[in-house]
Structure prediction request, 249 residues.
Amino acid sequence: MNTSISTSAPAFTENSIEARIDAYDWPSLARELDGFGCAVLPKLLAPDECAAVSGLYCEERHFRSHIIMARHGFGRGEYRYFNYPLPGLLGGLRTALYPHLADIANRWNERMGIEERYPDEHAAFLKQCHEAGQRRSTPLLLQYVSGDYNCLHQDLYGELAFPIQVAILLSEPSRDFIGGEFVLTEQRPRMQSRVEVVPLRQGDAVAFAVHNRPVRGTKGSYRVNLRHGVSRVRSGMRHTVGIIFHDAR
Prediction:
């Protein structure tokens, strides 16, 4: 359903996307996610792929809704949720990233005492979402201009929520925009919040915890709560694509 190729997206083969993602050092990425709640996948997309995806923003036919953040108290800026079928590049990324992240998510749930386990393939997980009434696509394309920012938040959308998501920076810092850093905060029980500012370049992706992750304590693992956002863009225009693995009600 989500692997059709749009004429506006870069040409690719599903195998090339899978090979690109499989080539990352996933044990190292898993350790980063375990330790800090986020991990960077450098140069996931090439500059021409970034330009092709960001260029979709003005093409209404690709999207199911358009959100102006200020109207909802989300910050300043705007974003659009993609329709199904997704453009081929995004569908391929979503399908290929999921199995690597599902292994981490299942281990997290075991450590946090959560019974839910995620299937090996993304199609099987989407089937669970649709059976639960969550049928609307969630990948989104975000656009920020000078003065825009995204308040700290969590992308849950329903009872079924995959605990890790991926954001890919499509613009080049310093050249296309200044400011607009990706920010992650973590609140541990009876402690002050910890802030992680993630430096990204064009084409880099960051995988991060959506809601909770386990942290090892003296009496075993416990849950910490995370939120993410984007600091104020000081000049220029910033585009990001967000890959969320569960669908919405």
